[in-house]
Here is the input.
Amino acid sequence: MPVVRSISGLRATTDDGSLNAQLISSYVKAFAKLLDFGRIVVGRDGRQGSEEIEKLVLSELSNIGCEVVSLGIVPTPTVQLYSELPEFSGGIAITASHNPQNWNGLKFINSNGIFLDEQENHQLWKIVDSNEIVHSRFSGKIITEDNAIDFAINKILDINIVQSKIQEIRKKEFKIAIDAVNASGAIAVPKLLKKFNCETFELFCDSSGIFPHEPEPLPKNLTQLAEFVKLNKCDLGVAVDPDADRLVLVDNQGNCINEEFTIALAIDAVLRNSNRENNSVVVNLSSSSISQWICNQYGANLYRSPVGEINVVKKMKETSSIIGGEGSGGVILPQCHYGRDSLVGLALVLIEITDKNQSISEIVSSFPTLYMKKEKFVFAGDFSSLVYKFKQVFSQGVFDEQDGLRIDFPNSSWLQIRKSNTEPIIRIIAESISDSQTNELIAAAKQLL
Here is the structure.
């Protein structure tokens, strides 16, 4: 498999040797040089094989003169929270996020606790590709930090909206089932929920790193969680991806809620409790229009960015947005930190349920019904030529080329084609007010492909 490097970091397959020691070493050393050999924090998502990569990363950093702090198995957002502390120059999260078991990789974080942007990544790649000799005149060392998850949870509990609602939430005594795919959320998610006085049922939380199913938290992969919620009359089912930056929900009736609703529910909770006169929100161009509908209810402005956490964050900072995220289940709340965080998202969902005094199924059913479909294809042709064809065929639409091509139509439906940041594929996404209309848009796009 090819090595994928993008604004989302470095990813490759491990079973065929694509992600090998030499490749990892070159990127780690280049990152250290980019940070001028400052203090670096490292964490891993716990998937099988990540421990050996962690040893290599820690060794390479210390050998070239960096002081490095090891967090062990933690969510990627926890690495981000540490990276923004004054004593750190940046961080590395060892993860391939939602990719299958045979993938792994590295996410690079700057001293602001956010992923490297396009310019910073190009600087990193230039160092890697030039194969420059990397060294420091100082000797490095490795320090182990054992309380990283507690640190992250306390940051969430300190959020103003959480502080104001925590006693109300605790009185509810929610019953919640958890699927953390035996990875980095296995300890963090139950621990947070217990702070809210929730009764937890831990389905896949053994921290073994062995995924019980495909790790991306999509409905087709969450059937066991859904069945458990229904049989045990839970209030909610919670699923996170291996590095726990994405949150997906199962309602109290055992129905998998579309991942797009995670950010929608979080936006609703934050805007309802905001005292600001002018609020703005950012989601990416691939996210559902449900967020626009919610913003309209509160008179808030919605802005869109290209897909990718760093792209959403940059737009949020530019617009001073109160909340943002991605329709894949990623919630970004600046009051905690500028990073997608499933634990932050979960706290906001609990506030939403408590505020409305309704079940999660009742809340979701009160939102407009929209039909979204996502497909992906291996595509070896010229993407710019493909975009040109789409613009010819769908000439009646309004074009946005920030991220591939998004076409908005007069009837409120939309279609997008874009290259993935994390896989060697092209994604097709469509949404409309009817299932048949969405299928027609997907079919037309597939025909052009």
Summary: The chain has a mean pLDDT of 95.
